[in-house]
Amino acid sequence: MNCRKHIGRAVTVAAAGAAALACGTAGADVVVPLPGAEKVQTLSDGTVVTVRLVGESVTISPSLGGTPLHRNAWVSGSAQVEVAGAGDRPGGKLIPGYTVGCQVDISGGGVEGGVEGGLNWSNGQNVRPNVGAESGGALSLGPGQTRSFYLMDVEVPDDFGNEDHKPVNRFRGNTGSVTWADSTIALSGCAGYAQARAFIRVEIETATVASHLTVWGAPFSLG
């Protein structure tokens, strides 16, 4: 029986848990809605940037590897940006992704300035990813390690016309968005508790200012 087909994405956490129990212990997926996030920032030229993470949820699945060292989840959500008061031809980039940690508390509020360059961020507990962000949600982590990955892999030509890949969605005008559904987080090697959280990096360009900001979603357990 595929319980995933029988648990709606709009159920509450309690209802999702009850539905999973009704399906039995084997093969039961649990859908957990997440609160999302919003951040408003005024740039030096008066441009007001609003970034939202909406419609976020995670489907927690039993391990495909069949051991406590394996976790599997599917994440969904939408990143949205609105730019107001920017004058002519605003635009920018949306770069969504997730940070995953093994036996590490990634809920600290001090990551507000994060996702700089190679995603080297730290919070009050000096938590740092052991590598920069990469594409793909198949991760292997040991205790105390974190890793970040990008959701997007967009093929674009480089300066010489050769194929290149970027984790960004470029937009022109006052709005932009990226929506993802059932993107996989497959974690192996973590014997303890595991957490993940979404991030949205936004780079804004106006006639006079180039700036960036990062919005973090709520941490959630991978088991």
Textual characterization of the structure:
There is one protein chain. The protein is mainly beta. The chain has 2 domains: 1-32, no CATH class; 34-221, Porin MspA (Ig-like beta-sandwich domain) (Immunoglobulin-like, Sandwich). Helix content is 5%, strand content 48%. The chain contains 1 helix and 15 strands; from the N terminus they run αβββββββββββββββ. The chain has one helix at 13-23, and strands at residues 30-33, 37-42, 48-61, 70-84, 91-102, 134-135, 138-140, 146-150, 154-157, 163-166, 169-172, 175-188, 194-205, 210-216, 220-221. Strands 5, 6, 8, 11, 13, 14 and 15 form a 7-stranded mixed β-sheet that branches. A hairpin with a 5-residue loop joins strand 9 and strand 10 (163-166). The longest helix is centred in the first third of the chain and has 11 residues, at 13-23. It is elongated, with a radius of gyration of 19 Å. The two termini are 22 Å apart. Mean pLDDT is 74; it is low at 1-26 and 109-132.
Quick description:
The protein is mainly β. It has one helix spanning 13-23; strands spanning 30-33, 37-42, 48-61, 70-84, 91-102, 134-135, 138-140, 146-150, 154-157, 163-166, 169-172, 175-188, 194-205, 210-216, 220-221. The chain has one helix and 15 strands.
Layout: helices, strands, pairs:
Layout: H1 13-23, E1 30-33, E2 37-42, E3 48-61, E4 70-84, E5 91-102, E6 134-135, E7 138-140, E8 146-150, E9 154-157, E10 163-166, E11 169-172, E12 175-188, E13 194-205, E14 210-216, E15 220-221
Parallel strand pairs: 6-8, 7-12
Antiparallel strand pairs: 1-3, 2-3, 3-4, 4-12, 5-8, 5-11, 5-13, 9-10, 13-14, 13-15
